[in-house]
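Input chain follows. Return structure tokens only.
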Amino acid sequence: MVQTSNQRKTLTGLSPQTYEHPFDQKALVALEKMPGVSLMFNKINQYGIDRLLRFKFSGMSLKVNERNFPDLYNSLLEACKIVDVPVPELYLKHGTGYIKILTIGANNPMIIINMDGLECLNHEELLYVFGHELGHIKSRHLLYHQTALILPGLGKVIANSTLGLGGLATNGVELALYQWVMMAKLTCDRCGLLACQDVNIATSALIKLSGLPGKYINGMVVEEFLAQAREFGNYNLDNLDKFTKMLSFMEPMHPWTTLRTAELLKWIDSGEYKSLLLGEKIEQERQKAETNIEDTQEEDTQEIEEAGEWDFLNSWETDY
């Protein structure tokens, strides 16, 4: 087993650029280059998907606070403090037979966890899964991510409408979106690990997310799974052929626990995780920002004057 300290550090000033997985950015660039992406997100924005998802989940779930579910809420508070994210709303929805956690709301995020997550995850594991979801918020993933959530159903209902979703699969946009979702998980897993600061806890949480009941998880199970993940890590994701990627990532909402654990272990072995915990990379990013602030101040001021208050949803209205 990988040994870690029980003393968790607060990572004030943590920037997603300090832990972003390289495949995340590469997949996003590839997605944004696809013809039709700008039109698709403009149309989805027009139909108010963000608002509709918020209406759906707030209308079917219990809002969590420090009074009704204090242990669950305190886990979120601690995760937010560690990875330096404003506290989003938290909701608890009905069970599905397996742990389900997601975040929606590009401008006003809300995390939804189901009853299975409440019952199956302990405090430390909740730090990991909440840290993962907070990673989506920090990296501003939510518009693309929630589009992937609703795209299959949306395409079936209005494939021939003005949204023009009928040809998404054939022109590659849908597959590119799903590949990015998978790669974005790798970034957010790193944020989850930074929140719980114990790879064994992260691993047990991922095992539970894959469906194994907690009563079967012990030190030996975690150790053997870590060994399996290291062996799986010999695959080079960047060198997978296009057909393999297409078949593999068509179901991006599945846990993919072995792959994700393998990528976490690579990150730990690289020394970057330890550097972040020690505060070295955070300080380097701060100094870099201070160095560049004078060069970019005039440009930023001009952009603000032209665009007004920054709006995440409308910021995708760009011609490609």
